[in-house]
TrEMBL record:
Source lineage: Eukaryota, Viridiplantae, Streptophyta, Embryophyta, Tracheophyta
Pfam family of the protein (one): SWIM
Official protein name in the record: FAR1 DNA binding domain, Zinc finger, SWIM-type, MULE transposase domain, FHY3/FAR1 family
The SWIM-type domain, residue ranges: 336-372
Domain of life: Eukaryota
One MF term in the entry's GO annotations: zinc ion binding
Keyword Zinc-finger applies: yes
Keywords: Metal-binding, Zinc, Zinc-finger
């Protein structure tokens, strides 16, 4: 199996840290300067064609596609290219296809298989200062690597074009487990999960059993992430393995995927290649804020550089939310001073973000843009935030063959063969016959297996050995039988000099001398509170009764006054009406006469 050629980055000693020290009158956490120079992650044989940098997989001839190769079917060609891609360190995606109208069969005339990074990302939408956007990564780099086949009547498909070079770094062999093509569950694993379900073991427990059997997540095919005494070592090793696997997955995402860029600045693209993904998102926020939230107020010459006074409108807005605003304007204005010496690649801001966190601030990024500096200042990239902060997994992998590792390798090799022969009954039967011969040979080599005691067997499984000498210190006080009481401290003994157990108050559970429920202050306080509450309730009830009686008297008085007023009004109206009728009768009499 071919291996991708790994160009190892320059390794230096881990940065020595200096404790908290006084820096320009402020306390900050700093690193000693060293000769560390970040190098972007690179896997593959690097070459240049027409000024473009290309990565070519280091796969021997005969194990990769070539012009003129024939395939019985389109599926065979696809599987062959996927197998090559997995060993080379990239992923395959189905591309365009063409079918002629003159084709009498259902076969395609031309089919493209491309790298998963083929094509470009859609243009990013403009993000406002107040809007929030989910941060995600993409794989598209407009890679031109492709495998193209054409249908040949009666013979199958033949390769008429094979573009081998990629415009991006490939995936290291140790990280190939994170590729989508490595997530498939094998035939034997499917059988194992099915058999586990028949004994009421769910998928989670089934996968946990697979991880214990295989020893690592790399061989399970899915990205899934659990006694006393000596078994503690096994659980501890499992937890460490989970952490290492998660870190490898994060490193893979940082190296193999591309984040969405918010600006067209070159320093943002370089930052994505230098920093880990989570740190880059923090740096990206500052770079974007330097474009929309910062403005230069004044510039002055200082020594061999310049001093910029920067107003941070983003900080102004934050303060305006917390404080009142006067006539539509913020009450506070935030200004920072940035000292810049581009020739020495020196930048310093009064916000002290780099001295505190080891990351450049938006004010320095704004000055870098004003100074027309195109590249990211490598001097301010600390190793602990970079993608090459740790050596590759192959460098830090433990060496040596323990019995547990040998057994797991044997199990994996047998399973690999079974998966290969699963759909070939004749070859599977030959493999079975070969295994039977190996069993007969094992019986001949070891007629009577050696017996080991339980302790040695556990030590062999865990990969540890029992120490030759075990030193156990004899305790000061040993109880030969029965149970002993806890030894009390001097303070506890002084609180109860008689040594007798005091009776506790049944109400407050207090064990003070001369204390019972009748003398308990808590009971007295509760009784007093109840009396006060009852007295207040009685007072309130009497007040409500007085108020109700007052309202009744007032209502009765108002009703009698209203009735008298209505009677007077009726009497007045009746007299007026009678007088009016009399005058009308008199007038009518005069008219008749």
């Amino acid at each position: 199996m071919g291996k991708a050629f790994f160009i190892e980055t320059k390794r230096v000693n881990i940065l020595t840290m200096v404790g908290y020290q006084l820096v320009n009158g402020d306390i900050g956490y700093r690193e000693k300067e060293n000769d560390y120079e970040p190098v972007p992650y690179s896997v593959g044989v690097v070459s240049e064609e027409a000024g473009e940098k290309l990565w070519v997989p280091d796969i021997p001839v005969g194990q990769k596609p070539a012009y003129g190769m024939m395939y019985h079917s389109l599926e065979q060609a696809y599987e062959y290219y996927k197998d090559y891609a997995k060993r080379a360190g990239f992923e395959v995606r189905l591309g365009q296809q063409y079918k002629s109208n003159k084709n009498k069969h259902d076969n395609l005339n031309i089919k493209y298989f491309v790298c998963s990074k083929e094509g470009t990302n859609p243009a990013p939408t403009k993000v406002g200062a107040k809007s929030k956007q989910r941060k995600h990564s993409s794989k598209r780099t407009d890679c031109k690597a492709a495998f193209r086949v054409k249908y040949f009547e009666g013979r199958g498909y033949w390769c008429y074009e094979f573009i081998e070079g990629h415009n991006h770094s490939l995936v290291n062999e140790e990280d190939s487990v994170f590729l989508v093509s490595s997530r498939d569950v094998s035939y034997t694993q499917q059988v194992f999960l099915y058999q586990a379900s028949q004994v009421n073991l769910g998928p989670v427990k089934g996968f946990n059993l697979l991880r214990v059997i295989y020893g690592e997540y790399d061989f399970i095919g899915l990205e899934l992430f659990p006694q006393s005494g000596r078994w503690f070592y096994n659980h501890f090793d499992s937890v460490v393995g989970c952490q290492k696997f998660a870190q490898r997955k994060n490193d893979h995402d940082s190296r193999y995927t591309i984040p969405d860029f918010h600006t067209e600045l070159q320093i943002e693209k370089e930052a994505s290649e230098l920093y880990t993904r989570s740190i880059f998102f923090d740096v990206q926020t500052e770079i974007y804020a330097s474009v929309i939230s910062c403005m230069s107020v004044s510039v002055s010459d200082v020594d061999s550089g310049k001093k910029y006074v920067i107003q941070d409108t983003g900080e102004d807005e934050k303060l305006s939310r917390r404080h009142r605003i006067v006539k539509g304007k913020p009450l506070y204005d935030v200004f920072y001073e940035v000292l810049c010496k581009p020739s020495e690649e020196f930048y310093q801001c009064t916000c002290k973000r780099f001295e505190s966190y080891g990351l450049l601030c938006r004010h320095i990024f704004y000055v870098i843009r004003l100074s027309k500096v195109k590249t990211f200042p490598r001097k301010y990239v600390l190793r602990r935030w970079s993608q090459d902060s740790l050596p590759p997994a192959s460098v830090i992998q433990a060496s040596g063959d323990t019995p547990d590792m040998i057994l797991r390798e044997i199990f994996r090799s047998v399973e690999y063969c079974v998966n290969r022969y699963a759909n070939e009954p004749e070859l599977l039967q030959k493999f079975r016959d070969h295994q039977v011969q190996l069993m007969a040979k094992a019986d001949a080599d070891v007629p009577i297996p050696k017996k080991t005691n339980k302790r040695d067997r556990i030590a062999s499984i865990l990969g540890v050995s029992q120490p030759e000498e075990i030193v156990v210190n004899i305790p000061k006080q040993v109880s030969t039988k029965g149970s002993r009481k806890r030894i009390k401290s001097s303070i506890e003994r002084s609180m109860n000099p008689s040594g007798k157990r005091r009776k506790n108050c049944r109400f407050c559970k207090c064990s003070m001398n001369d204390h019972n429920q009748a003398k308990c202050n808590a009971v007295r306080a509760q009784i007093a509170a109840k009396k006060a509450s009852d007295k207040a309730a009685l007072r309130e009830m009497k007040q409500r009764e007085r108020l109700a009686a007052k309202k009744a008297r007032l209502a009765e008085k108002n009703a009698s006054a209203l009735a008298a007023k209505k009677a007077r009004l009726d009497e007045k109206n009746a007299s007026v009406l009678a007088a009016k009728k009399a005058r009308m009768a008199e007038n009518n009499a005069c008219v008749v006469s």
